[in-house]
Write a structure and sequence with these properties.
alpha/beta; three-stranded antiparallel beta sheet; binds flavin-adenine dinucleotide; N,N-dimethylaniline monooxygenase activity; EC 1.-.-.-; FAD/NAD-bd_sf
């Protein structure tokens, strides 16, 4: 809904300088708001800021405050091709001297995010090494903004010196991600099992599992990736899945690796736990449309639906998810193109380009058929050419996609 009232400048706090927080900061500033980003880490990147220092971390990730944010393991390569990942006005191009692969390693995405920050001058908005401990509505009439809108108190602690700072903002955008805090399955015997148990949040490299018998619980992308790299060092790897209906690609790996076995879930004596990590299929453009909408709602260019309409919609959403058997903890997994397109319509953000959708589907099909090789062998050349000739890739010059 477009409103007549426009251009109200707000003082906004964004919590987190990962892919969502950065694009939120960019959109908020573009809309004329004053923005401060509070980031607990020393750099931007969120999950993509790889951190090997997991020794001090609770192996099961049960601590209320995690010491390490990133759950990225050393060998991780993107599951989606780089062409579909970029924000609408900043394609994820190949750069000279960098990882030029279509499914690059995790560091390449961190470098892309750093480039994005530099290009749009976002670093100056970020207060690093600052952890937000509390966000709450300010009390009292004196704290009310113009028009009676509530204000927000944000309490943060600096990592160096531990100084607590309390500030008041007109609005807060929480962009802290949802892949760090581990979710643990309830498995009988888990509490009394004495040998090594860990969550994939603290998994980095396969070496500590040399000659061990390892059970990997969770047959999603990370579970499969990690199992495949463990077979080279572990004595046996048992991948525990919810269903024995597995992809052709995984069957091939199992047939090839005599020490890799797949089972239906129900282990009593595991030595390694992994959480299922599902990913938003095309995250970055979706984060961008969310950011645009937030910025425009705050400036008054867009109006939110009425409270009743929102509550009705929330109820319908949960009912539909429940009917489809999706657990509430997966509420944020809304990986479908239609949802992203409908969302974009709220703020006149373009629909996902057809080539983006098709390249994404092609990668999913390839990974199903060839789990080990899909990142290096593909047959979507025509789609790729279509992408390179699209406005997304030619906005920085006709050959930007190919220039090194
Ligand atoms: C193993 C793994 C593989 C993945 N692979 C892919 C992939 O191939 N493709 C893909 O598109 N996505 C993938 N993802 C999803 C990935 O999470 C998203 O790409 C993206 O990082 C989400 O961005 P975000 O900004 O929402 O959250 P995050 O990247 O998690 O960033 C959140 C930021 O908030 C900060 N923060 C958190 N709490 C606080 C606090 N209290 N105070 C201050 N700062 C705080 C964090 O330090 C961090 O910088 C993967 C995720 C995982 C875990």
């Amino acid at each position: 809904m477009v409103s007549e009232k426009v251009s109200r400048c707000r003082r906004v706090c964004v919590v987190g300088a990962g892919p969502s927080g950065l694009v939120a900061a960019r959109e908020l500033r573009k809309e004329g708001h004053s923005v401060v980003v509070l980031e607990q880490n020393h750099d931007v990147g969120g999950q993509w800021l790889y951190d090997h220092r997991v020794e001090g971390e609770d192996a099961m990730g049960r601590a209320p405050v995690l010491g390490v944010h990133s759950s990225i393991y050393s060998s991780l390569r993107l599951t989606s091709p780089r062409e579909i990942m970029g924000y609408s006005d900043f394609p994820f191009l190949v750069r000279r001297g960098r990882d030029a692969r279509r499914f690059p390693g995790h560091r390449e995405l961190l470098l892309y995010l750093r480039d994005f920050c530099d290009w749009f001058g976002l670093r100056e908005l970020v207060r690093f090494d600052t952890r937000v401990d509390y966000v709450g509505m300010a009390a009292g009439a004196a704290e009310q903004g113009a028009g009676g809108a509530a204000k927000w108190v944000v309490r943060s602690t600096g990592k160096t010196g531990g100084k607590v700072v309390e500030e008041t903002y007109d609005a807060v955008v929480v962009a802290i991600g949802h892949y760090s805090q581990p979710w643990l399955p309830k498995i009988t015997g888990m509490e009394v099992w004495k040998r090594r148990q860990m969550h994939s949040h603290v998994y980095r490299v396969p070496d500590p599992f040399r000659n061990e018998v390892v059970v990997v619980v969770g047959n999603s992308l990370s579970g499969q990736d990690i199992s495949i790299e463990l077979v080279d060092v572990a004595k046996e790897v048992h991948l525990s899945a919810k269903s024995l209906q597995i992809s052709e690609g995984l069957s091939k790996v199992i047939n090839k690796c005599p020490n890799l076995h797949i089972h239906l879930q129900g282990y009593k004596t595991p030595s390694l736990f992994l959480n299922e990590v599902s990913i938003l299929v095309i995250g970055f453009p979706f984060f961008e449309s969310q950011a645009k909408w937030i910025a425009q709602v705050l400036s008054g260019r867009r109006a939110l639906p009425s409270r009743d309409d929102m509550m009705k919609s929330v109820k319908e959403f949960y009912q539909a998810r429940e009917a489809a058997g999706i657990p509430q903890r997966n509420t944020h997994d809304i990986a479908d193109f239609e949802y992203c397109d409908r969302y974009a319509e709220h703020c006149d953000f373009p629909h996902l380009e057809e080539w983006r959708k098709q390249l994404c589907l092609s990668a999913l099909r390839n990974s199903d058929a060839d789990l080990e090789g899909y990142r290096d062998r593909y047959d979507d050349e025509e789609l790729l050419q279509e992408a390179y000739q699209s406005a997304h890739f030619t906005q920085f010059g006709p050959d930007a996609a190919l220039s090194l």
